[in-house]
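Sat 14:20. Reprocessing the chain from the morning session after the first attempt stalled halfway. Input below, unchanged.
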Amino acid sequence: MRQFFKRAFFLLLCILHFAFCNFNSVAQTPNNQDCGGAIPVCQEVYNQANSFSGEGNIIGEINPINSCLGVGERNCVWYTMTIQQDGLLNFTITPNNANDDYDWAVFNLTNASCADIATDASLEVSCNFSGNTGNSGITGANGLTTGLGSSQNEDPIPVLAGETYYIIVCNFNSSQSGYNLDMTASTATIFDNVTPSLRAITAPVFCTDDALSCEFSENMVCATVAQSDFALTGPGGPYTITGFSGGDCDLGANYERNFSLTFSPAISQGGTYTLEIAGNVTDLCGNEAPIGSGLDFDITAIPLDSLVTPDICGAGVGTATIITPVGSGPYNYLWSPNVSATDVATNLAAGIYTVTVSDIGGGCPQNIDIVVQATPSPVASFRASPLKMSYLDPYCEFIDLSNGAVSWVWNFGDASNQETIQNPVHTFPGTGEFAVTLSITSADGCTDDTTIIVTVTFLSTIYIPNAFTPGRGLLNDTFGPQGEGIAETNFNMRIFDRWGKQIFYSYTPLIQWDGADAATGKILPQGVYVYNISLFDLNGEKHEYIGSVTILER
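Finished this time. Tokens:
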């Protein structure tokens, strides 16, 4: 009958209460008797000497239709905790006055706010509104569900690390006697000894946005969180935090885990961004979030790919096509260097091209580097053996040392026919220097050539006589250099008598000394005369001779 009376008596009060709540339109600062001002659980036992009275500043937080607390809030106080380790939440409320009737409820607000409690019945994970049926009025989620007073108790609550719970404790009797709240039997770690951190960006952030919302791993003390405690870094920065709001903090609450920021400039590039802690912010148990810790989030730019063909033979014939998502666009294309204004570029030389692609309809532009490769060019090279040879044996072998060649053309520089085999042998028709050129072609049609000078020399056999018999009409009646291979140009021969007087000069090997004094035309007497001869052979080599020659008697 007492339990029935308890519910029936206050049903009318509940109706009147919610009718009155509609007039509570002015924002109030929450206190410990409001969800937004809940006492943070930072210890296992709370001794409350005096009972709380009234309903707090925020009216209508408990809706009897959605909660087992049939009269809503009545002389209540709130507690909050963020679970640090999985386990069971086990608590017992022991009234200081054994006749007092305490009621309670537990809400999981991990992904909800205090304002959601009145409309979302699923947030209430455990509750007891039983009258005092004995056992000193003990009540709680303690598993004491058999025996005296068992109707006032519920099973312990399974909880997970990171979850946030709120406990409301109400004194139905309106007495001033307090209670003892004991949570030592919990197997979960229920009070906070862990540093808080940014846990999530709670709403998608897109290109051109200048605001974001973030969530901490637990409730933070509102008085310790400010605009200057955040920093945003990423592509397109530096960024300045220009605005800040804190959900329930803005309504006067003592703590909140969700915050919103505005920043400048707006996001304009895809990439990875970091929201960092830049100041001293603390959770409800005084743990500070590490300065410099942060949370990365990605802004997706336009996904790009490319199809590239190489530049062949250095002719500037490479191509590139930018591949964008099917069904998107239209897009703008900005090439650097400026070789195209569309998704296709042609006649490209080997090199690196940067393309910026932007969506005309909005969204972050994206860069892609296009690398146009050059096909490997052939390199002509060969060896001649020997490189220099006598006209008596003008036979030369040519060994190809080229890279990348598939065909060969040899020009021997002597008006002979070209050869197209890889390693030819050639006989030169005469003496001189011959420019031998090898021209090669690669599989891509690229060409290269190189030239080596091959020399075929004349075999010079030059000697200087040491005596002659002028004026006798015999073979040995003139003096001068003898042999094969004497060049007719750049020739000088001087004859001197014993006193150093020049008696003869010739500028060509065709004019030799006949033994006469050039000044008188008379044959000189028998004796020794000095010569100085300078000449070039047919191979272009210079020879100099200084010595003496004897005129013999006739």
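The CA atoms of residues 470 and 477 lie 4 Å apart.
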